Amino acid sequence: MAAQHPTAALLLCEVVMEILSWVPAKPLTRLKLVCKSWNSIISHPHFVKLHLHRSPKNAILLLTRTQALNLGEEGKQSTLLSSVESFIQNPSSALDAQENRHSLQVQDWVSGSCNGLVCVARILRHPNNGICDICFRLLNPLTGFISENSPCLSVNVHNAFGFGYDESSDSYKVVTLIRDSSGTVTAQVYSFGGSSWKTINSLPAFLYFAEDINGHFIGGTLDWLGLRNPHGAYYDWADVTLDMLMIVSFDLKSDTSKQILLPKGIDEIPTQEPILGVWGNRLYLLYDYKNTHFIAWQMKEFGDENSWTQLLKISFHHLGVETLLFPEFIFENGNIFMLIGRHRFERVFYDRRDHSVKRVNFFSNNRYVNAFDYVESLVQPC
Fold it and tell me: 200 φ, ψ to 5°?
């Protein structure tokens, strides 16, 4: 048989790459075994980026679950993947599925997900002195990739975390915010594959909320909602004023921060701490109003403070509850909201397209559930 012409071989390789780039990530892990040439194509960094670019977004959830064990024992933690559609239709079944489940250690905390990678913090607390050692690693639940641990940090327990991707340097970064007793906030930044942390001292003095310590990744930034210039490490929400609320946005490319203003239409302080959310590359602000309504604002163009739009104002009466519902997650480009109900195990789903309400009780052994937007990928950083 005559040898194949180099140009024809190159063209065939490009055709195969084009076809494979549209195949879902999970089958690709098996297609790598077909032959050496396919393994070479699928493993190539250019193909991995092309495939990630073409992968469906906002279709999969990464769920973290802490399962109660016997009295006196610490909870068993795990992560699992679920399609958004399956989770909305039957959350309890999705949480009990054994496929795509990965066990975590008790000391582990999922601090974010980006491009198919999950950032996991391991926190070891020192007894009685308020100090903990913390290190981070990356894992890809689909491929089984696990990175080396970052260097450890010894920090106080009042920390916030964030994980994201810096496209300019093609690097994945984790940020730890550290606030000392004087109110000064510093950022420790680590690029995976590096050997040390970088200290950033230019952040404004603010206090991040204990219920929302994971930074929200959007537009190359990590974003936290907090209080401007609080006195001490704690606060009484009854003393908080509207002008104290602020969004701090940390740019992963420049390692600089700026403040983003809240919507101008907010005229009084919410009953409880508001939270941020991200879905479909848009930022959301979620809170209650007078303990009678749930309100959601959407920033249509990230970074443009004039693009804040009130997306939703729904009464608790319509949702069938009399007490405050804590917002937890957003689906379908701001059309479906998941809220924590009267107790930790109840979730309320509200679809603003047809105004339907669905109330779901998780099994009692699911003590704690958290959700992250996720995309299946073949990414395995150096």
Answer: -115, 125
Please tell me what DSSP assigns to residue 100: T
Write out pLDDT tens, residues 5-45. Answer: 566 566 668 888 899 999 999 999 999 888 888 899 999 99
Helix, strand, or coil (residue 252) = coil
Query: 0.85 cut: is pTM over it?
Result: yes
Domains and CATH numbers, the chain: 6-51 (no CATH), 56-374 (2.120.10.30)
User: How many other CB atoms sit within 10 Å of the CB of residue 187?
Assistant: 23
pLDDT tens for 121-147 read 998 877 777 788 899 999 998 888 999
The set of residues, in sequence order, having a beta carbon less than 8 Å from that of 19 and lying 6+ positions away, is none
Which residues sit opposite 11 in a β-bridge?
none
Q: Residue 284: which residues within 8 A CB-CB, separation 6 or more? A: 276, 277, 278, 296, 297, 298, 299, 311, 330, 334
Q: Which tokens sit at 356? A: 């339907």
What H or E segment, with its residue span, contains residue 250? Answer: strand 245-251
Q: Which two tokens stand for residue 341?
A: 């109900």
> Judging by DSSP bridges, how do beta strands 206-208 and 185-191 pair with one another?
unpaired
Q: Are 360 and 372 in contact (CB under 8 A)?
A: no
Pairing of strands 171-179, 198-200: unpaired
DSSP per position, 28-43 = HHHHTTS-HHHHHHHH
Contact 371, 338 (CB under 8 A): yes
- Report the alpha-carbon distance of residue 322 to residue 325 in Å, rounded: 9
* Residue for token pair 């509200």: 350
What order do you get walking across the sheet with 308-315 strand by strand? 275-279, 282-289, 293-299, 308-315
Q: Residue 287: what are its φ and ψ, rounded to 5°?
A: -165, 175
What distance separates the 2 farthest-apart alpha carbons in the chain? 84
Task: Tell me how far apart the alpha carbons of residues 84 and 94 are, in angstroms, rounded to a whole number.
Answer: 10
The identity of residue 175, as a single letter, is V
| Cα(99)–Cα(121) distance, integer angstroms | 23
d(CA 202, CA 244) in angstroms, rounded, equals 19
